[in-house]
Amino acid sequence: MVREISSGGIVVRQAESGWEIAVIEPQSEPVSSSPRPKGKKQSQKVVLALPKGLVDPGEKPAETAVREVREETGLEATVATKLGDIRYVYTRTWGDQQRVFKIVSFYLLRFESGHIDDIPPEMRLEVKRALWMPLDQAIEKLAYRGEKEMAQRAAKYLAPSV
Which CATH superfamily hosts domain 2-25+47-158? Predict the structure, then answer.
């Protein structure tokens, strides 16, 4: 079985209403400059996810998390702590149709600078948009169970001690 190692980040910033995190809406269809065929409707379901990607050769997972956050959201951030790993198996829907064992390490990152959704045009092939969202809402709205769990871990880490 093929193995993939990825890394991602939960970028947080303090807002008046509490903690916010950066989430992305991945592209569900290829980006095209041509108009949509008449009668074809766009899917109404919005998929929200965390920025993540494959660890490049020679790169540490924490470095990947920072890079992927910058590429997919437009934000600069620094690592606060590792939140944990998600492990799962999927079947590639492209190319060789192989089963893949995937590990994704997630890091809690503190926002430093940048503007959300200010990403290079070539990233629009992967990311439809990036946005800030209240952490408690993100826990509910993230599409993937493992990512919801990582957002819950971030909330627990950020909760004031009593």
Answer: Nucleoside Triphosphate Pyrophosphohydrolase (3.90.79.10)
